[in-house]
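Technical annex, item 7. During the second reporting period the consortium partners agreed on a shared format for inverse folding records so that results from different sites could be compared directly. Each record opens with the tokenized structure and is followed by the designed sequence. A conforming record, contributed by the partner at site C, is shown below for reference.
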């Protein structure tokens, strides 16, 4: 009887694994490259190890910002975030800290697919693993400092990032599903001329693009199919505890902040009245 119970339990456990959409190849788990389902997602809302700073410290950082809007606000933000104290760096350790999985300190959360992999699974000579990748394509960055800026660069699966290439960001209906380094399908999709990341990543890449505009003067439409899409993603996929924590970590490492994580409302104040589509996106 005991043997039959064990057999039944084994069948139930096996069935639950094979039915799971997050099921991972056991070989990958054995290799220590990916975690099992319980540790893979960065979307949990309770618990987690987040870096928190006093609200007073963050408010003080923006003390010079008042009622500006449009290009005046964009310029004012640049004066706040682009100072001589900024210390960019491309070292692995910076990204291992900034993108650390709050539920597994041995892992990082990857930007586009939002999966969790070992910090040690750096991209290898076969292009397998994660690397430090630019959410505003490096081919479009003519500022050397921007090429090592933690607010623009995130931990990313190398194969997914190669698929993104320098395509603009936007909503893809249909298209092709992208698989990652470990041949696991992600929720990222590639259309004929657009790349669409995991929904959770949409707000993050929108706010990273806004930072690039404020910090370095880049045109958001060099990275997005339209200003309206960028504004919609900022509103539809709001700042999470992970986003706030990452901003705080990069602030400690780099000595400046992404103002659109602290104040996502700045986006519509700057770009909301540019055209009818941006007005509609912002409800103006």
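Designed sequence (site C submission):
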């Amino acid at each position: 009887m005991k043997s039959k119970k064990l057999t039944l339990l084994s069948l139930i456990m096996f069935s639950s694994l094979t039915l799971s959409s997050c099921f991972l190849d056991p070989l990958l788990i054995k290799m220590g490259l990916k975690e099992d389902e319980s540790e893979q997602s960065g979307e949990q809302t309770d618990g987690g190890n987040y870096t928190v700073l006093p609200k007073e410290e963050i408010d003080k950082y923006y003390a010079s910002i008042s009622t500006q809007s449009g290009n005046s606000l964009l310029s004012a933000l640049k004066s706040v975030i682009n100072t001589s104290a900024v210390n960019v760096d491309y070292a692995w350790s910076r990204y291992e800290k900034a993108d650390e999985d709050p539920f597994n300190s041995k892992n990082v959360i990857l930007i586009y697919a939002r999966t969790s992999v070992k910090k040690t699974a750096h991209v290898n000579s076969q292009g397998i693993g994660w690397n430090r990748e630019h959410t505003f394509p490096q081919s479009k960055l003519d500022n050397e400092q921007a090429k090592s800026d933690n607010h623009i660069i995130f931990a990313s699966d190398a194969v997914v990032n190669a698929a993104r290439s320098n395509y603009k960001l936007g909503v893809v209906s249909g298209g092709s599903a992208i698989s990652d380094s470990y041949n696991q399908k992600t929720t990222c999709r590639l259309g004929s001329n657009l790349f669409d990341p995991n929904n959770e990543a949409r707000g993050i890449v929108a706010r990273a693009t806004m930072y690039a505009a404020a910090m370095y003067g880049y045109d958001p439409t060099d990275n997005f199919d339209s200003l309206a899409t960028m504004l919609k993603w900022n509103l539809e996929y709001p700042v999470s505890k992970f986003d706030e924590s990452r901003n705080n970590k990069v602030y400690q490492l780099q000595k400046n902040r992404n103002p659109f994580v602290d104040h996502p409302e700045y986006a519509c104040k700057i770009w909301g009245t540019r055209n009818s589509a941006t007005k509609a996106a912002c409800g103006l």
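Residues 52-282 form one domain. The mean pLDDT is 88. All partners now use this format for quarterly exchanges.
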